[in-house]
Write a structure and sequence with these properties.
alpha+beta, 5 helices, 199 residues, eight-stranded mixed beta sheet, elongated, 2 domains
Length: 199
């Protein structure tokens, strides 16, 4: 009788061990998904849903040609790196302009697919030397009200602290963080240009 109880007990333990071994992969995958929560994110910039941020009518004016209005769709068919700032353009503004120029050049033969746009949100004049340094950047004056509710920011930041990316169809699709690392932006741009057949 005692031997039978021992055998039964041993059999139960063996059964439980077999069940535990079989269930282990499922348990570990559950823990990994719900507790560790890997993001799987490979992009540096924040992906934006263009349906939430349709491009507004800007009625912008080309710098030096105030009689002419221009919309961003003038550059449709190209990827647009977009910066927003005032004409005084402090150091952080100048760095973004420099980074955008270098990022475009870094794409090599693909650089013709990218345009750089600086939206000025005030009437402040822009230094001639700065315009020479960022030659090739399209500079447009725009009323700040036209940008309201269009460009999303990170918590505690302003639109002037980001570089935005617009796809060749005119969709706002990415925002890079404040004080962005240009090397990481370069990787995002490279991946987008390789993956996209448009622009």
């Amino acid at each position: 009788m005692e031997n039978t109880d021992k055998q039964t007990s041993r059999g139960r333990w063996k059964l439980m061990l077999v069940l535990a071994v079989c269930a282990a992969p499922m348990i570990f995958s559950y823990l990994a998904y719900y507790l560790i929560k890997p993001s799987g994110r490979t992009n540096y910039g924040a992906i934006l849903d263009p349906r939430l941020y349709p491009m507004p009518q800007l009625n912008a004016h080309l710098l030096g040609q105030e009689e002419k209005t221009q919309e961003l769709d003038a550059y449709s068919g190209k990827w647009i790196m977009l910066q927003i700032d005032g004409g005084a353009c402090p150091d952080a503004c100048r760095k973004k302009l420099y980074d955008m120029r270098q990022l475009r050049l870094a794409q090599g033969k693909e650089m013709e697919r990218i345009e750089r746009v600086w939206l000025l949100t005030d009437e402040q004049p822009v230094a001639t030397m700065l315009l020479r340094e960022v030659d090739g950047t399209h500079v447009l004056r725009v009323a700040p009200a036209a940008l309201k509710n269009w460009l999303p920011t990170e918590d505690g930041s302003q639109i002037s602290e980001h570089i935005y990316l617009i796809d060749p169809r005119g969709n706002l699709m990415m925002r890079f963080p404040k004080d962005a690392d240009p090397n990481k932006i370069k990787k995002d741009l490279g991946k987008l240009l390789r993956a996209s057949a448009i622009g």
